[in-house]
Amino acid sequence: MKVAVIGGGPGGLYAAALLKRLDPGREITIWERNAPDETFGFGVVLSDETLGGIEHADPVIHAALRAEFVRWDDIDIVHRGRTLTSGGHCFAALGRRRLLRLLHERCRQLGVELRFRTPAPPAAALATAYDLVIAADGAGSPTRQAHADAFAPRITTHRCRYIWLAADTAFEAFRFEIAETEHGVMQLHGYPFSAHESTVIVEMREEVWQAAGFDALDEQSSVERCAKIFTDALGGRPLRANNPQWTNFRTVVNEHWSHGNVVLLGDAAHTAHFSIGSGTKLAVEDALALAACLEEQPGLCRALAAYEAERRPVVESTQRAAAASLRWFEELATRTGRRPHQFAFDLLTRSRRVTHDNLRLRDPGFTAAVQREFGCPPGTPPMFTPYRLRGLTLRNRIVVSPMDMYSATGGVPGDFHLVHLGARALGGAGLVMTEMVCVSPEGRITPGCTGLYDDEQVAAWRRITDFVHRQSPGTAIGVQLGHSGRKGSTKLMWEGIDEPLPDGNWPVVAASSIPYRTGVNQTPHALDQVGMAGIREQFAAAVRRAARSGFDLLELHCAHGYLLSGFLSPLTNRRTDAYGGSLANRLRFPLEVFDAVREVWPDDRPMSVRISATDWADGGTTADDAVQIARAFAAHGADAIDVSTGQVVPDEHPEYGRSYQTPYADRIRNELGVPVIAVGAISSWDDVNSLILAGRADLCALGRPHLYDPHWTLHAAAEQGYSGPGAPWPSPYRAGSRKPPAGRTDAPKPRLSLMTRSTR
Ligand SMILES: Cc1cc2nc3c(=O)[nH]c(=O)nc-3n(C[C@H](O)[C@H](O)[C@H](O)COP(=O)(O)OP(=O)(O)OC[C@H]3O[C@@H](n4cnc5c(N)ncnc54)[C@H](O)[C@@H]3O)c2cc1C
Ligand SMILES: Cc1cc2nc3c(=O)[nH]c(=O)nc-3n(C[C@H](O)[C@H](O)[C@H](O)COP(=O)(O)O)c2cc1C
After folding, report:
1. Which of 244, 255, 369, 580 has the fewest CB atoms below 10 angstroms from its CB?
2. Residue 758's pLDDT is what?
3. Cα–ligand 1 centroid distance for 114 (angstroms)
4. Exposed, middle or buried: residue 424 (CB in 10 Å: 0-12, 13-18, 19+)?
5. Ligand nearest to the CA of 654
6. Can you tell me the distance from the alpha carbon of 535 to that of 483, in angstroms, rounded to the nearest whole number?
7. Burial class (CB in 10 A: 0-12, 13-18, 19+), 361
8. What is the pTM of this model?
9. Ligand 2 shell residues, CB under 6 Å
10. For the chain, what is the mean pLDDT?
């Protein structure tokens, strides 16, 4: 087999070495346009996990790397004159130049042909002369560009500028330092890569970079300026450059990773922001997977498909973590005002891969200090601290998210709702929300939706709130009020979500006459002033009934494309009157409804507003709009914003993932200082503790986890060994308040001392 490798970076070199080692009969040539020692950057960090993979695949490279590594455990966070240290992280790094030299040596030893200072021939030409072409030609990959039709790359350029430098001093830890300058916030990411050298990456928002005049400085002056800004970190030493350039990080994603016998590897296939230090790791792991798949699969085509299938999910998960980390640094200016420990904790957990529980295990002292500063009573996890909204104190931070059960008749909640909501109230959540309760029969989504438009419904809801208050004292119950708008008159969820009824449809109304799905859903009637006034009054009447029903909190549903949400989104509101056009106009009707509702809802009871913080669609609501929307509702008296996303238009492209909506909540909370409820794919108590302690959310709403386990909160308490007032077990259940023991084994205990003796 003849293999051509384009690019002699870590990915290309390691792939070549492995392929040659596995089959010395392979003829392998690497083209590298630069000289052997001519490369960008300084140090790279590799994890223990990657090293383990390398050890199994090629012990020689592993031994060489091990001998070179500098290792350390701590992360120092330097901010506003204080250094906070978190330990137990286990890092290993070495110089990029040194890494490449070791790989060059190994390739030579194994008989790989290295052609330095030689740009590779085009991949198309190599593809005819070689059996396999590995395009490991970096983030700017000429191969990917030349075959953009086949690989379908998507490249996103981000908002910060960075420069990769070095200092002749070894930091004792990973160092994040924040400089709040007159031009804006700048950050240093630093780590040692030899006994006397450190990588220093200086990064800042584009506008800060320009305000600071970096755009007008030559390279040397830029480097000197950075050294001056971070002089304390550097102990007054200068910074060194190696082909430095201020660059905007670019995230690379490819629809396809191979085309015929040409395969992308490393940065050519995908990039992940350097703040999670994973680029080299991913390139090396790609090489491991590619080599393994070529061994395991019959034929090249199957091997390349298996390689992509194996690596894509890992890469996507890393890219999600890297995106969260990148965004964190982009929005750093909104976070610098936090208290010191919370700031440090927020920084450490920014990618969502490191959590409260990880940090507690790595450095219990650090986590305890963060909890003390937060105000957690001793032995109380953050999620079990109380939270006050207006006159209502919630005993913990868990909310049962509103979930439509589509199980009512005539809008009246029945026994199902009593048992469903009652069970979740007994299950320990601080706040149990009803489903979207509709303000009129026509405002229902389906015939199975509940309402608050007549007195029979008031009595039925009262039965439920009375149960909750009596049987689960301390649990609050809130009602979510809404009107379905253009998404109304549809089937029950399990019979066909958002599909019109087979018969008995009722006319639907909306901001504009645009159906949810053309040719499928009804075309709504665009509301006129009289229609809007009528609906405003229906909301107010429903709120009076909600107060009589005994609810503790009221949420106005302005999300998910229902009536009020439909006014907010530019995709669904095309009105030309005072209720359409600018965001201020689009907010007008939802705010009028909010005001009407707030006026009749008892003064001491809080109100939240659920919004879709992005439509996940071009031309729709953006995160910036969401901040303005939240600001407007808060100014009108909303006590909290419940931050969901999407479901406004059918052709949306959500970026699902762990806690994927939380960054929107986080931004609103920290830009506006407004309490937020985060929701969406938050499923572990560890995630909840992390979000609350980092100050990304005040409350966490969990939907589907509560369908899985009504006692989610009590079980979270039991698993954390917590038995305080934040999660009291109902008296009749107390006997079961510990996790049932797993099956026990009666086999004799293995005795280490005996085992050692017998092997002597
Ligand atoms: C500021 C910064 C800091 C980073 N820090 C870390 C870190 O701490 N840890 C980490 O793991 N990763 C880090 N990375 C990422 C890391 O550098 C890359 O992910 C890694 O180098 C990818 O390896 P690669 O082999 O895919 O590509 P590269 O290392 O980019 O190698 C590609 C090679 O291809 C060559 N080439 C391109 N076109 C041609 C051609 N036509 N002919 C011949 N040769 C060609 C280039 O000269 C280059 O040598 C960082 C990146 C940046 C920008
Ligand atoms: C069966 C079901 C019904 C839902 N009904 C509502 C609703 O009535 N109102 C609402 O705002 N969100 C509704 N949602 C969305 C949830 O409140 C929540 O935002 C979503 O499920 C994401 O959270 P999770 O990942 O914890 O489930 C519903 C979700 C589910 C699964």
Report:
1. 255
2. 41
3. 17
4. buried
5. 2
6. 9
7. exposed
8. 0.90
9. 401-404, 435-436, 480, 557, 559-560, 610, 644, 679-682, 702-705
10. 94
Task: Supply the Cα-derived Rg of the chain in whole angstroms.
Answer: 29
Residue for token pair 């490819």: 254
The answer, yes or no, to whether residue 747 has pLDDT greater than 80, is no
Here the tokens at position 746 are: 């009666």
How far is CA 14 from its chain centroid? 31
Is a pLDDT exceeding 90 seen at residue 43? no
Express each pLDDT in 521-531 by its tens digit.
Answer: 999 999 999 99
Q: What is the pLDDT of residues 594-626, one digit of tens each?
A: 999 999 999 999 999 999 999 999 999 999 999
- Please tell me the distance from the alpha carbon of residue 339 to that of residue 754, in angstroms, as a whole number: 53
Mean pLDDT of 75-103: 93
> Residue 602 corresponds to which tokens in the numbers above?
């008892």
3-state helix, strand, coil in the chain (%, to 5): 40, 20, 40
Q: Distance between CA 677 and CA 337 in Å, rounded? A: 21
Question: Which residues partner with 84 through β-bridges?
Answer: 77
Contact 28, 8 (CB under 8 A): no
Ligand 2 geometric centre to CA of 435 (Å): 8
Instruction: State both tokens at 549.
Output: 């029903």
Strands 262-264 and 113-115: unpaired
- As a whole-number percent, the residues of the chain with pLDDT over 90 amount to 89
The tens digit of pLDDT for each residue in 319-363 reads 999 999 999 999 999 899 999 999 999 999 999 889 999 999 999
Distance between CA 225 and CA 242 in Å, rounded?
16
Average pLDDT over residues 517-538: 97
Q: Which of 388, 410, 499, 521 is nearest to 456 (CA)?
A: 410
Q: For residue 224, how far is its CA from the centre of ligand 2 (angstroms)?
A: 53
- What is the β-pairing status of strands 676-679 and 699-702? parallel
* Rounded Cα–Cα distance for residues 472 and 394 (Å): 13
Does ligand 1 come within 6 angstroms of the Cβ of 278? yes
- Pairing status of strand 153-167 against strand 239-241: antiparallel
Coil, strand or helix: which one is 176?
strand
Q: How far is CA 746 from the centre of its chain?
A: 45
pLDDT of residue 759: 41
- 132 bridge partner residues: 3
Query: How many Cβ atoms are within 10 Å of 750's Cβ, its own excluded?
Result: 7
Residue 206: half-sphere exposure toward Cβ, Cα within 13 Å: 6
- Ligand 2 atom 13: residue of nearest CA: 403
Measured over the CA atoms of residue 566, residue 570, residue 574 and residue 577, the dihedral's sign is positive
Q: How far is CA 327 from CA 141, 331, 333, 579, 680, in A?
A: 24, 6, 11, 33, 18
- Ligand nearest to the backbone CA of 493: 2
Q: Which residues are catalytic?
A: 562
Q: Please, which pLDDT band fits residue 660 given cuts at 50, 70 and 90?
A: very high
As a whole number, mean pLDDT of residues 217-243 equals: 93
The answer to whether residues 550 and 464 touch, using CB atoms and an 8 Å cutoff, is no
